[in-house]
Amino acid sequence: MTNSVALSSLLAPFVSQFNPRSILTAGDTAAMCLQIGNDTKLQHLKTPFSQDQLRDTRPVDLAVISHLTESMDKAAAQQWLGMIKNRLAPHVILISHPAIADDKGWRLTDYLAMGFRHLAGTEDGLQVFTYAIENYQPKRDWLNSRYWANPEMYDKYRW
Fold first, then answer.
1. Distance (Å, whole) CA 21 – CA 47
2. Which of 6, 30, 7, 18 is CA-nearest to residue 131?
3. Structure confidence at residue 36 (pLDDT)
4. How many CA atoms lie within 13 A of 13 on its CB side?
5. What is the pTM of this model?
6. 137: three-class secondary structure by DSSP
7. Cβ neighbours of residue 159 under 8 Å, at least 6 residues apart?
8. Which of 20, 97, 102, 146 has a CA positioned 20 to 30 A from the CA of residue 111?
């Protein structure tokens, strides 16, 4: 198994940043390394992972998932993560072992394409990726009415 103390200290700043009231853990490593206060509601999903597990799961503030990419084929894992990100949790921490996930076809670009950012790695080869909906699509300067609307020109010219 992994060094859960080191992993807990690595995850602690990210978890405290969002101050979640409810947390979903999936996988044994996620459950072991997460230290939760008494005021937090916790849901835990056991392995093996399946889409059926997510039907009865209530939305949460934070999901911590471990070893999903190593235990499922790539397409099923992407669907599973998509369901978590899009319907259940605005913040996700994914703990993966890239050397093992590589056998299932996972590359760094696959994590990045799903909106995850690489947070850190541990000595035993685990990599931690994070997803936060507010960081997914950065605000662009050109996306405002100043660049798109010209109300002073409405009755002067025909486009």
1. 24
2. 18
3. 56
4. 5
5. 0.77
6. coil
7. none
8. 20
